[in-house]
């Protein structure tokens, strides 16, 4: 993975917290990062070039008008006032290369002095076993703070550890071995044949990112929410607000005119409105 610094910009070492999405159902992690980039007025400082990401190109996502500035698959933003580096991922990983991609990101984070990595992702509502909506939308977490994935501060915030995480289960162990660079025989790969229900969560992108950042000795926290496909903007707001709680940030201080600054790209997130003449 190559980090290409934008002309005239210089990355700041004090931006020691790294925030990034893990692609999943509803793209909630990406939408939440969009909100945080836009609202904190983070500036783009460079691009990440990785062979495991499918190429794509688009228009600027955050400007008030379409200015013709190109957006690429992996972009790095910084908010020095919040000591925050944000990575936005706009295209999927090549099939079968998620662990390699996660290793490259972990190498980048370690080489650039990141101390805490926060991964934002969504989970399939159809696989939620113990549904509890008594207090509204639920946030689940997974942390490297303790071997069992728990974190005292996350518990104080009222969040629950992802119940499906079991470091002794075969798929989680296999993922950890891959992340640590151990020589694992292809025949022992548990995700190909004889797939069981407990193998599902370790097969998701957030799990690979969590395992690889952890293997590098970095503190990593995954914030997760269950959702369905559709209009997931409310889930994105909830995940972004939870991120601010975790990092001790105040969204009220982001923007003078409003709490959250809606990205320009959200205006056409489902395409332009239909021509009313057809009716």
TrEMBL record:
Pfam families documented for this protein: PAC2
Keyword presence, Nuclease: no
Keyword field contains Amino-acid biosynthesis: no
BP-aspect Gene Ontology terms: proteasome assembly
GO cellular component, one term: cytosol
Keywords: Chaperone, Proteasome
Family: Belongs to the PSMG2 family.
Functional summary from the UniProt entry: Chaperone protein which promotes assembly of the 20S proteasome as part of a heterodimer with PSMG1.
Assembly information from the UniProt record: Forms a heterodimer with PSMG1.
Protein's name in the database: Proteasome assembly chaperone 2
Organism: Tripterygium wilfordii (Thunder God vine)
């Amino acid at each position: 993975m190559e980090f290409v610094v934008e002309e005239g910009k210089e990355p700041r070492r004090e931006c020691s917290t790294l925030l990034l999405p893990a692609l999943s159902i509803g793209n909630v992690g990406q939408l939440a990062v969009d909100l945080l980039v836009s609202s904190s007025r983070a500036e783009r400082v460079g691009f990440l070039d990785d062979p495991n990401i499918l190429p794509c190109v688009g228009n600027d996502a955050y400007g008030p008008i379409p200015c013709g500035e190109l957006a690429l698959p992996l972009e790095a933003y910084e908010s020095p006032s919040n000591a925050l580096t944000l990575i936005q991922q706009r295209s999927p990983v090549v099939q079968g290369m998620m662990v390699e991609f996660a290793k490259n990101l972990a190498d980048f984070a370690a080489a650039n002095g990141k101390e805490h990595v926060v991964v934002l992702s969504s989970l399939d509502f159809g696989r939620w076993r113990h549904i509890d909506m008594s207090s509204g939308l639920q946030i689940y977490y997974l942390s490297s703070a303790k071997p069992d994935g728990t974190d005292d501060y996350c518990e104080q915030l009222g969040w629950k550890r992802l119940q499906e995480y079991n470091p002794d289960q075969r798929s989680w162990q296999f993922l950890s071995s891959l992340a640590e660079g151990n020589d694992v025989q292809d025949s022992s790969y548990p995700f190909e044949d004889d797939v069981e229900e407990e193998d599902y969560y370790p097969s998701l992108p957030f799990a690979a990112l969590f395992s690889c950042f952890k293997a590098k000795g970095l503190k990593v926290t995954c914030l997760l929410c269950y959702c369905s496909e559709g209009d997931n903007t409310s889930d994105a707001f909830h995940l972004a607000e939870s991120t601010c709680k975790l990092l001790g940030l105040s969204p009220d201080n982001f923007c003078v005119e409003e709490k959250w600054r809606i990205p320009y790209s959200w205006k056409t997130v489902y395409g332009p409105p239909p021509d009313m003449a057809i009716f």
